[in-house]
Amino acid sequence: MATTRFIRWFRDITIADVGLVGGKNASLGEMCRELIPRGISVPNGFAITAAGYRHVLHVGGLAQTIHSILADLNTADLTNLAERGRRVREAILAIPFPAELQNEIRDAYTTLCVEYGPETDVAVRSSATAEDLPDASFAGQQESFLNIRGERALLDAC
């Protein structure tokens, strides 16, 4: 299980990696670190890093597009806020998923399938790198996709 540019395996993640993989993934890494040596079975898995997310933002100029959409955002105007949010979502969905990131996700999923069987079911969950700050919490605002089976479905969920 090699660590790659955009993938980190749970067994290689610690709580110190929150900025790299988010809180949920760092906690999963800690579970692996603490429980596996005690004989408690913890399913293997991997995280796509914040570097992978930033790569998506910079491929095809998505970061600039989002910046332009939000440049004069009026957070007090809920109609304006909803419209800008819709435009950002459309911009994200319109760009191609970078091949480098797709390849790393495929390779990691193949490793899981070797370990657990063909078309292993996985969960795809976002894990914000600043989820629970002293003055703000974003818990519950992220997406979770359960029972994802197969390479194509995994890439679509990502």
Write the layout of secondary structure elements.
Blueprint: E1 7-9, H1 18-35, E2 46-48, H2 50-58, H3 62-70, H4 78-94, H5 99-116, E3 121-125, E4 132-133, E5 136-137, E6 144-149, H6 151-157
Helix pairs in contact: 3-4
Account of the 3D structure:
- With 158 residues, the chain is α+β, with helices and mostly antiparallel strands.
- It has a domain of 110 residues: Dna Ligase, domain 1 (2-Layer Sandwich), CATH 3.30.1490.20.
- The protein contains six helices and six strands, in the order βαβααααββββα.
- It has a two-stranded antiparallel ribbon with strand order 1-2.
- A hairpin with a 2-residue loop joins β4 and β5.
- The longest helix is centred in the N-terminal third of the chain and has 18 residues.
